[in-house]
Amino acid sequence: MSSHNMSRFLMLRERYVSPGVPQAHPLVIERGENEFLYDSEGNRYLDFTSGIGVTSLGHVNLELVEAAIAQLKKLWHICIHIASYPPYLELAEKLSQVIPISGEKMAAFFNSGAEATENAVKIARQVSGKPYIVSFMGGFHGRTILALSLTGKYKPYKIGFEPLAPGVVHAPYPYCYRMPARGEEECVQLTLSYLEQMLEVSLSDEVVAAIIVEPIQGEGGFIVPPKSFMQGLERIARRHGVYLVSDEVQAGYCRTGRFMAFEHFNIDPDMVTLGKAIANGLPLSAVVGRKSILRRVKPGSIGGTYTGNPVSAAVALKVLEIMERDDLCRRAEALGRIIADRLEEMYAKYEAIGDYRGLGVMRAIELVESRASKKPDPHLTLRVIGEARRRGLLLIKAGYYGNVIRLHPPLTISEENLKIGLDKLEEALKASL
Length: 433
Fold this sequence. Notes:
It is a single chain. This protein is α/β, with parallel strands linked by helices. It has 2 domains: 3-60 and 327-432, Aspartate Aminotransferase, domain 1; 74-325, Type I PLP-dependent aspartate aminotransferase-like (Major domain) (Aspartate Aminotransferase, domain 2, 3-Layer(aba) Sandwich). It contains 13 helices and 15 strands. The strands form 3 sheets. It has a 7-stranded mixed beta sheet with strand order 4-10-9-8-7-5-6, with helices on both faces. A 4-stranded mixed beta sheet has the order 1-2-3-13. Strands 11-12-15-14 form a 4-stranded antiparallel beta sheet, with helices on one face. Strand 5 (132-136), helix 6 and strand 6 (168-171) form a beta-alpha-beta unit. Helix 3 packs antiparallel against helix 10 (310-325), helix 4 packs parallel to helix 10 and helix 12 crosses helix 13. The two termini are 34 Å apart.
């Protein structure tokens, strides 16, 4: 397709799509094939975004296509409020079996990560009878008003949307690279002591329903908290009689080398929220949690017209089958080691990399003006992303200050193409300095 058509499509976007909908790359993508995307001019790109951690099994996975077609020929929609259908029930059963929360579990399905977050909060409030929710600075939980209220970053998400939902308070997250602490242990002590004091002084056990936390902050810049923080968080939740919700929307589904990211920390949350990779791009999300909690939700108080759509649920069942059959958690761990080794090499060579971090195939570099100052360099970040695109690699930024580059390739990427993409990243960084 000609550049004229690309320009035409981009003009259509400018003319008819609200600028409130962001765009990381000035491209029009026509098709995908596992780790590759092709634009309307026929250019090919290695995709290190996976649609923001969604297409973990690659673009146009043929097994998933077949599962979708088979279900489309049976039933597109009826609404779970009208009558039950097999994919919804089978997916609820399967997730209740495989999510590693202790005891019996139940599930409910929704359309997006934001909806899963909203409903986890609704469930926690209704069952506990308490109004307040604690979330964390730098966290991201979605763009609907309640999810946005939980999100711990103002710009660009909250501008002009006040008043937001009441009953939400934010605690510091252990972003140890940027905290005024002498090492990881002090970083954890500072964050946990602040949270404990907040629960005892600013709030009380009588009013706090839940703590919701990303086990690895996504939009925050792939910040991995120390294990001692997550374990301390669980102890605090138990001591205060507060539900602990792990937001696994971006970090779950083998992305970090474990099925759920919270498994890295040996904790046992009460509920998890799921989305993104759950159906590899079809709209679906879930809340899975202890049966002792979910069975107490009042009939009619959660759900929705399209929640747990038959086609999305059928594809989600196939996603779980493939992940288990191909041991993709172990593969993510192996691919993650390749990425980590390469980032370590880049860190040794380039002063602009202030920090590199992550787990599994969820890795990032944080770019700074100098390591001594740690001053964020969002301009360099954008230059690197642009240079990478010109070399055929798609990346996205993140971070509290917009100076983090996320590496989010599909779990099905070949080792050869993963290494090629990392080469392109280094070339782009070197050319941007």
